[in-house]
Amino acid sequence: MPTLTLAHSPDPDDVFMWWPLGSLDVPPVFDTSPFRFEPIAEDIQVLNRRAIERGDLDITAISIHAYPHIKDRYRLTDCAGSFGEGYGPKVVVRDSSDAPRDFTSALRWLGEPGRVVAVPGVNTTAYLMLHLMLGRAFEFLEVPFHEIGDAVASGRADAGLLIHDAQLTFARHGLRGVADLGAWWKEHTGGALPLGGNVVRRDLDDRFGPGSLARVGELLARSVRWALDHRDEGMDRIAARYPDLDRTTLDAYLKMYVSPLTVSCGEAGSGAIRDLLGRGFRAGLCPDPGGVDVL
Questions:
Q1: Looking at residues 91-117, what average pLDDT do you find?
Q2: How far apart, in whole angstroms, are the C-alpha atoms of residue 151 and residue 38?
Q3: What are the C-alpha distances in Å from 90 to residues 165, 178, 182, 193?
Q4: Most Cβ neighbours (<10 Å): which of 3, 225, 242, 250?
């Protein structure tokens, strides 16, 4: 059976969605013929750059911000997207910071000369959104997503842009929130904020025969549905990987980012993607996305 690389972020929702597909050492829970899958966990900005610069992974998670750069090589899947439905990446500061507590004043404070914001990568949707929200460029420090809280707490950065499960746990580390990008997007558009997606290489039919792309799309969608239908088992399987997340917090996070839009983004999801990337293009932050080609 041909092996397809399946790259994903190490955050809980990605691991939860893909455990049913198995690995080179663990069999899948359902028939995945004619393929088997090799999961690869990596920082999302690393995956963004790899997709843009190399494009060698068969299936990979990406930030939606990266999609216009890779659309000629990859197709976006209908399933497994991450959408913030009135919530999303958060800007945090040290609890002792002089940053104002009201949103409008906090935005002015963030834009002051010399303010440095730790971000998880310039190709992440969080970075794009913060730029759109501020309406201007800002000074930033690019660090792996799991080091952002430490960068703020240590004073290396004045503020940090948190993604993944850190959105729920930052207060435990002496940080406080000053802005929620998903809430801002909801207020301005009325829709969900498309944060991450998954893409599949366009050449699978050429490499493995007609219908391969469609089959992979079916298998990915089945994995997401299986994970949701066997939620307790999935949480048992992945919980050990997140010792800092209690069961309640892990469950809350999965409810946020494995939603009906994750099962199928549909027109609502693809429309939100077009809206976001269109705004990014008009602001000069990404190439023209054109249409959104969903598998």
A1: 93
A2: 33
A3: 11, 8, 8, 13
A4: 250
Instruction: Report pLDDT digits (tens) over 140-197.
Output: 999 999 999 999 999 999 999 999 988 998 998 899 999 999 999 999 999 999 999 9
Enumerate long-range contacts of 240-246, CB under 8 Å, 24 or more apart.
241/10, 241/12, 241/15, 242/12, 242/165, 244/169, 245/12, 245/165, 245/169
Answer positive or negative: Cα dihedral of 206, 210, 214, 215: negative
Distance separating alpha carbons of residues 23 and 41, to the nearest angstrom: 12
Q: How many CA atoms lie within 13 A of 15 on its CB side?
A: 21
Q: Which of 205, 216, 199, 202 is nearest to 73 (CA)?
A: 202
Contact 2, 208 (CB under 8 A): yes
- What is the rounded distance in angstroms from the CA atom of residue 197 to the CA atom of residue 144? 19
pLDDT over 90 at 291, yes or no: no
Closest CA relative to residue 192, chosen from 261, 293, 130, 251:
261
Active site residues: 164
Position of tokens 């799309």? 217
**Average pLDDT over all residues of the chain:** 95
- Does the global pTM surpass 0.90? yes
Residue 87 pLDDT exceeds 90: yes
Rounded Cα gap, residues 276 and 117, in angstroms: 22
Mark 70-84 as b/e (b = at least 16 C-beta within 10 Å): bbeebbbbbbbbbbb
